[in-house]
Amino acid sequence: MRIAFSTLGCKINQYETDAIRQELVSRGNTVVPFEADADVYIINTCTVTAKSDYTCRQVIRAATRRGKGARVVVTGCYAETRPEEILTIPGVETVIGNGAKLSIPEYLAASSSEHSVQTAKDLPVQALREKTRGFLKIQDGCNNHCSYCIVPSARGKSRSAAPANIMDEFERMTHACCPEVVLTGIHIGTYGADLNPCTNLTELIAMLVNKRGTTRLRLSSIEPRELTSGIIELLGKGLCRHLHIPLQSGDNTILKAMKRDYSAEFYHELLVSISKKIPGIALGTDVIVGFPGEGEQQFQNTLRFIEASPLTHLHVFSYSPRPGTPAADMDDQVSESVKKKRNEILRLLAQEKNYSFRKKILDTEINVVVEAGSDASKGMLTGLTDNYVRVFIDNVEDDQIGREIPVRITNVDNKSTISEAS
């Protein structure tokens, strides 16, 4: 069969689509561009905002129009939260929830043509290998109930993969000389609490670090109160010097309205402590601007908080109401024009802080994993340091792709970091 994919939303969706794609190709199917004629269209959806739902519906309708007689399969978070709504779109064959999405190859092989909704609860271990890094999904679902977020409804409660299964996949990756493995999930800080016997993320990371060989390990996003001293101790000792710790706001009033479980003071002290213990660490975060009730004073509190923090990477988002969440019905909604202005202010600050961080590695030697990507304007391959700096590499050949090599940082400007292979 000719199969086309469209993936919307987060990196987890991307990883899961890749897993489905790999399995279908191994069964003799051919993957074609989503814009091409196909026998099957698979749409992996997002529902983080109302706009996301709208975009998903547009993509689904485009598939049903393009592939007359083709099978249209919809999965992902929008499929989980609004399955009956999706089935009203003419041409949709089936809706498959998040828990069952990895069974799509089996579903297609069964050649079912009945309109249906499918769900499942088991969490298989998912490991995906690219040339330069592997992604190991250890957990799904979320136990938090932030007032702006629909993810717990879309993904369900936190569910952990068995440690033995994770170790099996990790060892396959290390034996294949995978230079970097990223532990992924929706709420990875809760890893292991639902297992019997109970375990935790710290124990899992320690176990993986002990078995890593030359492979370096990287964490995806982790909540502030779930970052243990044990995890911090492993940073730079097999675990990459890079943490992404969501902030969302630097104002305590807004944090409380968001139903976040920490204060700005707790978050600041955490970051300062980590930055002192781990020299050169990259500290990234997410920030939402324009949350209901965010007046100028609350925004200025966030701005000053970030300016005074050791953060090195910022992802800035404008708040978008999501029907079905408490925040969507809150008073004091912020205008789009104000959100846009605040977003731009924080993005400029993010660029400044990242530039300042990268300047500190100028004229130093550091290891990078050489990536497959290159830049036509510079004619160089790229690489990623353990502390999350993407560099252009001069004087390196394609046969080094996927290997960790030492480079010297020769130039840093506000847009790029240039290095030379040692």
Description of the molecule:
There is one protein chain. The protein has 422 residues and is an alpha/beta fold. It is 33% helix and 24% strand. The strands form 5 sheets. Strands 2-1-3-4-5-6 form a 6-stranded parallel sheet, sandwiched between helices. The longest helix has 24 residues, at 336-359.
Based on the model shown, name its key terms:
5-stranded mixed β-barrel, 6-stranded parallel β-sheet, OB fold (Dihydrolipoamide Acetyltransferase, E2P)
SSE blueprint:
Layout: E1 2-7, H1 11-26, E2 30-32, E3 40-45, H2 50-66, E4 71-76, H3 77-81, H4 83-87, E5 92-96, H5 104-109, E6 116-118, E7 126-129, E8 134-137, E9 139-140, H6 151-155, E10 159-160, H7 163-175, E11 180-184, H8 201-210, E12 216-219, H9 229-234, E13 242-244, H10 252-258, H11 264-277, E14 282-289, H12 296-308, E15 313-318, H13 336-359, E16 365-375, E17 380-385, E18 390-394, E19 404-412, E20 417-421
Parallel strand pairs: 1-2, 1-3, 3-4, 4-5, 5-6, 8-11, 11-12, 13-14, 14-15, 18-20
Antiparallel strand pairs: 7-8, 9-10, 16-17, 16-19, 17-18, 19-20
Helix pairs in contact: 12-13
Radius of gyration (CA) equals 22 Å
Strand order, largest beta sheet = 2-1-3-4-5-6
Distance between the termini: 47 Å
CATH homologous superfamily heading of the largest domain:
tm_1862 like domain
Characterize the main sheet: 6 strands, parallel
